[in-house]
Amino acid sequence: MSASSIVTASDIQMDYMKLLITQLQNQNPLEPLDNNEMASQLAQFAGLSQLESMNSQLGTMNTSFVDVLAATNRTYANSLLGKNVTFYSEDETAGELVKMTGTVESVFNEPNNGGSLLGVAVGEGEEKEEYTLGLGAVILVEE
Question: Mean pLDDT for each consecutive 10-residue tract of the chain (143 residues)?
Fold first, then answer.
C-alpha cells in the first residue's frame, strides 16, 4: 500500500484481525492475551467504522442541502421579476452609500458560483441605470 493511499477503518480493522489471529496462534499458553483488551480494541474499531459511515452520509446530505438551497434561491430570485427592490449603492463621487429603489427586470446565474443575480433598472427613460445585485443586497421588496 502506498503512503498516499487512504486507509479506512475497515482496512485497519482487517489488519488488526490478521495480527490478532497470528498472536492467538503463537501465544504462550501460560500467558494468554487479555480478553478485555481485545474486546476494547474491537469496540474502538467498530466505533471508528461507524464514524466513517456517518461522515460519508453527512457529506452526501451537505451536497444535497447545497443543491436545494441553490434551487430555492433561483426560485426566489425569479419571483422578484417585475417587483420593486430597495438596495444600497455606493455614490462614486461622494463615496457614500445611497439607498436606491428599482424594478427587477432580469434574473441570471453568476458564472463563478452559480448564485442568482438580479438585473435592476433604476429610473426611467434617459435617466435609467442598470444595476446587478446579489440576493443579499436586497433590503426591501415591494409590489
Answer: 62 80 80 78 81 87 88 94 95 88 94 88 92 94 91
Residue with cell 457614500: 96
26 beta partners? none
Q: How much is the pLDDT for 50?
A: 86
Contact 54, 113 (CB under 8 A): no
CA dihedral 9, 10, 16, 22 (to 10 degrees): -170
Cell of 35: 480478553
Residue 6's pLDDT is 67
Alpha carbon distance 44, 89 (integer Å): 57
